[in-house]
């Protein structure tokens, strides 16, 4: 095992890239087509996974990155997971691949 490899993402971009690599096409499509209100509900469930997976209760560099993104000095793990979800959603919104065909 490479000792120099970081165990947890240290910023929002790394976190979003990791989530994008793990999500199925179906889940990416579902998230891309959610409303912003849906993101709040998603943070209740998927946010728990993100907080645990990225150790947001002690990952100071990730919390600092999320705080800087939000323009605040202190941020809770719950707020950080929402910011990560919202950034994931925005990245998926800007993707031409995930449009719903009616």
Quickly list its features.
102 residues; mainly alpha; 5 helices
Summarize the topology.
Layout: H1 12-22, H2 25-32, H3 36-53, H4 60-70, H5 77-93
Describe this structure in words.
This protein has 102 residues and is mainly alpha-helical. It has one domain (12-93). 64% of the residues lie in helices and 0% in strands. The chain is built from five helices and no strands. Helix 1 (12-22) crosses helix 5, helix 2 (25-32) packs across helix 5 and helix 3 packs across helix 5. It starts with 11 loop residues before the first helix and ends in a 9-residue tail after the last helix. The model is unreliable at 1-5 (pLDDT under 50).
For the largest beta-sheet, the strand count, sense and barrel status come to:
none
Structural class: mainly alpha
Order of helices and strands: HHHHH
Based on Cα principal axes, name the global outline.
globular
Strand percent estimate:
under 5%
Helix content estimate: 55-70%
Poorly predicted parts: 1-5
What is the count of structural domains?
1
Helical stretch tally? 5
Mean pLDDT: 89
Task: Please give the alpha-carbon distance between the first and last residues.
Answer: 47 Å
Radius of gyration: 14 Å
